[in-house]
# Entry
Amino acid sequence: MLDEIDQKIVEQLQKDARQKNTAIAEKIGIAESTVRKRIKEMMRNRIISSFSVQLDPTAVGYTVAIVGVDTDPAKLLEVAEKLTSFEEIRSVQLSTGDHHIMCEIWAKEKKLSKYIEEISVLKGVEKVCPAIVMERLKP
# Structure
């Protein structure tokens, strides 16, 4: 659970993970050492798992699709695990609602149909429902 100070630190890091601890400290009105210690503690507790770069996939030539995958319930975890091994699949989530698994695929050129086909022939997959992202409004 995050307290108010941790939440403010996380909000600052989400805006710009490259900013210095001193800048975060100034913005939220605490000592730099407090920011440093709290970030270290949140990393130790896996609240913060990494600091990464966010790409705009279309700016670097990718077509993005959100794909719903329905499975034989007995094969759900096996299929989900297999999907995590695909390099082109950027995220895999188990879900409720219309589909058992939701994936985000980034595909170069005209390879999206190839990846959809590879998913559809996995043992345990019953249905694949791709939707091409037309415009990303919020990363």
